[in-house]
Amino acid sequence: MQLPLQITARGVAVTPAIEADLWMAVHKLDSLYHRIMSCRVLLETVNRYGTGERIRYNVRIDLTLPGGELVVTRHPHEDLWTAVQRAFAAAQRRLQDHARRRRGEVKRHRRARRARVTHLFPYEGYGFLEASDGREIYFHRNSVPRGGFGRLEVGRVVRYAEEEGQKGPQASRVALVRRGRR
Q: pLDDT exceeding 70 applies to what percent of the chain?
């Protein structure tokens, strides 16, 4: 981390033990993603005066990263240590997601393929699709969600996800394409 940790407290007494725990949590974040430029932690009490509620602690973490900022705020908790742990656990998850995106490791969903229903056997509960490359793909009633199998007709265009079955390619998810859409 390029700049030291900044701790701001509003209505909270920051003991040396809490400060040491914050430093350890920040070092753990820094070891996960070494490009953190700065970290600011806000500890505050949330109390609605006159409501008789217990005092709750809110933790906000601002991480400055190259190209942006990552801000984590969790719901207030009655225990300061628990609020700090939850906030840093969330910051760790968000930082790991950010690092994966920067490395290009995030899955990109492929666009669903389109096909035309060529054969339909409603009593047996299966049918066949013709893919754009001319292959015939098997599908089962269970591959069509929300009872859509009964609405299928020969010649209808559907979206599907393909997987390799025991006897060749099969559609794992089949969904009707609304008429008028390509």
A: 92
Contact by Cβ (8 Å): 175, 151 = no
3-state secondary structure of 114: strand
Report yes or no: 108 and 148 within 8 Å, Cβ to Cβ: no
Q: Is residue 140 within 8 Å of residue 128, measured between CB atoms?
A: no
**Which overall architecture, per CATH, does domain 113-176 show?**
Beta Barrel (2.40)
Domain boundaries, the chain: 6-103, 113-176
Give the per-residue pLDDT at 49.
60
pLDDT under 50: residue ranges of the chain: none
Q: What's residue 21's pLDDT? A: 92
Q: Do domains 6-103 and 113-176 have the same CATH topology?
A: no
Residues 6+ apart with CB under 8 A from 5: 22, 23, 26, 39, 40, 41
Q: Which fold has domain 6-103?
A: Double Stranded RNA Binding Domain (3.30.160)
Q: How far apart are CA 7 and CA 23, in angstroms?
A: 10
Q: What local confidence, expressed as pLDDT, does residue 72 receive?
A: 93
Range list of H helices, 37-113: 80-103
Structure tokens at 134: 């001319």
List pLDDT tens digits, range 100-121: 888 877 766 667 789 999 999 9
